[in-house]
Prior knowledge:
27% helix, 2-enoyl-CoA Hydratase, Chain A, domain 1, Interphotoreceptor retinoid-binding protein, 14 strands, Tail-specific_protease, 251 residues, ClpP/crotonase-like_dom_sf, retinol binding, single chain, serine-type peptidase activity
Amino acid sequence: PDPGTLASVLTEGVKNTISDSRVKVTYEPEYVPAVPPAMPDIPPEQLAGMIKATVKVEVLDSNIAYLKIQHIIGEEMAQKVGPLLLEYIWDKVLPTSAMILDFRSAVSGELSGIPYIVSYYTDSEPLIHIDSVYDRPSDITTELWSMPTLLGKRYGTSKPLMILTSKNTLGVAEDVAYCLKNLKRATIVGENTAGGTVKIDKIKVGDTDFYVSVPVAKSINPITGKSWEIDGVAPHVEVPAEDALETAVAI
């Protein structure tokens, strides 16, 4: 008689059957499918202001850059506000001797932003195959490669890079952490990440108000031949998330 309870029971049954915590059954009579927003036609300065609100930048003692990122922007947005982001954020951290990327509360992002971030910590040549993403509905595999040219200068390959993670770090941020970890370019400090997915679809069950959330794409790392999905990204240095910054600074 209670649809919400039924959805919970079905979700538990699915988890016990296929061991994939990303698959969920929900009862949502008010659900309206989300339409991806078009690039807002607002001035780049205002867009940059919105992005600055989700990024915290600081130079810590010992000349260590600290960047806290909650959302990884995509290629289209980066092209539009790139010069302003360089001025507000990147130019401040370029002269530092080490960098900490804080992904502990990063739960959203765009796939096209992955090559952007990774490329700032790699060389321009040779190009590196970063990731392959298989999309099941279209049956297309997209290869992500490092970028030969970028807005502004690269941070390079020699200065230490730490990435902070928590059990809530989800999706695209997990992909970035996994790529940089397996390129041996970053040290991961914190907790094992959530083990999400790069893309999830919500499918309506017949003519009901029940929906099944199902991953419809898969990330396959060219170095490991495996994915960070389901299992998450394991840190090099495992500490509670709240101690990760202090630990990274000490390292």
